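ok new one. same drill as before - structure tokens go in, u give me an amino acid for every spot. 128 of them this time. try not to just spam alanines like last time pls lmao
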């Protein structure tokens, strides 16, 4: 449980700030996604970082219990699987995914999910 709290202390504020950034600057995020769609090789760095973060979280806390800390486990696996996708999926698959996700409604929805997850993790780590 201590590992989950330590990871949540990092992930909570990251999710909160990232979610607010997407919410407030959706046009800038759309433009960035368009650039990724043009040149998916820009995601190599994101792939390395995602793989490192994912494996770190998976190895420190990989508990599948239905509670708040499940966000930590799911984050680790999502980061790892996303990085695997970046490295192994053909370029046309990556471009299709970015094209599908590069719309305002999807970004607003994802920003709200990040804000809620970040607020919940931050609350239970820093306040409760």
């Amino acid at each position: 449980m201590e590992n989950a709290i330590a990871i949540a202390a990092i992930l909570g504020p990251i999710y909160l700030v990232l979610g607010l950034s997407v919410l407030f600057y959706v046009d800038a995020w759309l433009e960035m996604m368009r650039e990724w769609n043009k040149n998916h090789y820009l995601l190599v760095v994101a792939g390395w970082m995602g793989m490192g973060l994912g494996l770190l979280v998976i190895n420190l806390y990989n508990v599948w219990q239905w509670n708040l800390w499940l966000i930590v486990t799911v984050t680790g696996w999502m980061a790892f699987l996303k990085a695997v996708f970046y490295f192994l999926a053909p370029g046309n698959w990556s471009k299709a995914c970015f094209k599908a996700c590069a719309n305002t409604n999807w970004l607003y929805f994802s920003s709200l999910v990040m804000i809620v997850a970040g607020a919940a993790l931050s609350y239970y780590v820093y306040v409760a």
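The chain has a mean pLDDT of 92. and btw DSSP finds six helices and no strands in the chain.
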